[in-house]
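Chain and conformation:
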Amino acid sequence: MRIQSAERIQSDYAPVNPIFQRHLFAYEYIAPKVRSKTVLEVAFGEGYGAYLLSRYAKSVVGLEASERAIAKAKKKFHAPNIQFKKQYVPPIPFPENSFDVIVAFQFIEHIKEPEAFLKEAYRVLKPQGTLYITTPNALQSPSYNPYHVKEYTFEEMEALVKKVFKKYRFYGIYGDETFQKYFMNNKGWVKDFLRKVDPLSLHRKVPQVLLRPFYDVAVSWMRWRLYKQHPEACQAITTKNFYMDKPSPQALDIFVEMEK
């Protein structure tokens, strides 16, 4: 078993493949939309998304707060038209009207200033530019996540988005029956685990920074356990097991497309 941050999914680690494919799906969905465009990715994580988009885009700039993540991305996902830079967002360190597309997948739930981020994204987008974001649907989260400042429902996210953008479209990202089986096993294990170790939900009162190491261990063990029980099922999940549809409480993730 590999202990790793529950928030930094590694593309080459089999026990997290279902989550990796869920995240990769969003990149594959927008890839044709960024063809020959200048792209900024906020919080690129491991870098696999920026690398995929670079095959279509004119150029990709990736921003990340972690120097360790930047070093790994430069080594593993280098391409001639990608630049990886260190920056905590917001702010976004570029002039107005700099990019055709901004991508911020699984990011907005981590920050304390989401409206400031949206305003910065609007500022650096070119006219008719597009911002794409994904974020977990709060109604489907298996448990409290100490890395998330706030998780959103569709209604909460729309209330935030319309403060900055006039043009926007909402979709839901869903998993098919194969992924849902894995996801429900995951949720069931988490529910049983918390009932045994913390029946009073006291973990929600612990400062997030103190809870994170224990959360990482628990989530890493849970994912490894599910993988050992069903290795072929975990490895068989691909981006084809996900699809986009209208918003609903059953969506795994919220997907928003905003136009300047």
The mean pLDDT is 94. The longest strand covers residues 125-136.
